[in-house]
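Curious: can you check?
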Amino acid sequence: MESICKYIKNTINTEFSRNEEFLNYLSVPYKSIVFSIPFKKGGKIQTLKAFRVQHNNDLGIFKGGFRLSPYVSLGEMLVLAFLMTLKSSLWELPFGGAKGGISIDPKEYTEEEIKQIVKEYVKKLNNDIGEDWDVMAPDLGTNETVMETIFNEYSQINKKFSPSITTGKPEYLYGLGFRKFSTGYGVAYATDIALKKVGLKNPRIFIQGFGNVGRYAAVKLYELGYKISGVSDSKGGIICENGIDINKLIKVKQEKGSVVFYEDCKKVSSEEFLTEPCDVLILAALENAINKENVNAIKAKLIVEGANFPIDLEIEDTLLKKNITIVPDILANGGGVYVSYFEWLKGKTSQNFENEDLEKSLKEKIETLLNKTCKDRNIRKNCYTLSLRKLYEIFIKKY
C-alpha cells in the first residue's frame, strides 16, 4: 500500500495526489480479514494462513482474485486489492477492489486436499462474500476447478444457486469460455497496439512466464503474425532467432514441464533471459521481476506487464530515462476483470455472450485506453491519473 501511495505522491501532480485526506482514505482498506485453516496432512495438523482484503467499494461490489501461493501474505493482499480498485476504475467497471488467498504451495497438495482447504476457506468467509458484495476470481495457483469448488460450497451453505459468487467457472456453471483466454489475449492486444503507437516494426518479442497469461499472449501474438523469439519459465529460457513454433512449445511444456526442453534454441537461465537483447519484453510471471539489481541491464524498448507489479515502482523512472515505453499491469492485464464483468452479469441475468463479441469488445477497450494514456512513455502515471480522478470525484461527493 505504501509503495502505491508513495508512487502517487511522487509521480502525479494533481489536486487529488496532494490531498492527504483522500490518500489516507485509499491507503486503509474497508476490511482486512485474516484467519487460520487447520488442516490435517500426513498425520500432522497444519495451521494455514488465509486472507481476504476488501479495499474499496465506492465504484461497486468488491471483486478480486483468489490465489494459492507460499508467498501469500497480508501485505501482498493489501497491495493487490488496491491495484484492483484502480484497475476497475480505469476499465470503467462497477467493481471495487479485493484480493484473497491461502499461504500454501498447491504443488504439495493433492487435488482433493486443495478442494477441502478451499471449502474451509469459503465456510469461514461466508458472511463476508456474496454475489452482490464480494465476488472471487481465479488467480495464481487457482483455476476453474477451484472456482467451481467455491461456487458449490457457497451455494450449499446458503441453500441457493449462486453462479455469480465467482467468475472463471466452467461454462456449464454460467461461466464464459473466453474468460480463460481473456487476460493473455488482452496482453497480446496491448502489445500489438502499443507497438504500432511507438513505431516498432518486425519486433523481437520475448515472453517471461509461460503460464496461463504468457501462453495465451503468445498464442494470440502468433495468430496476429508476430514472431516470438524468446520464452522463459521458472526452469530457464529459450531464445530462437528464427522464431518459436508456439503450438509445438505448448506441447513441450505440457509433456515435459518446461519450455527449456524445446529443441534447437539457445538456453539461458531465467535471470539471464530478462537482460538479453530484445525489442519487446512481456513480463507474465511474478512480482518484482525487474528490480534494482537488474534494471540497468534491461535492453528492451517496450515492456508490457502481464503480471501484477513485475517492475519495482521505485526503479521505473530509470527505465523511462532509458527511453523504454512501459504498458503497465493496470491496463495490460485488465482483460481478465473486464471479461469477468460479463460472466458476473451472465450469472445474474442468464444473458449469454459470444466469444467473438467479447474478444472484439476487449480489443476495442484496450485501444481506447491506450489512446487516452499513451501520450508519452509514462503510461502508468496517465492510467493512475484517470483511475484516481474518478475515485476522487466520488470521495468529494461523499465526504
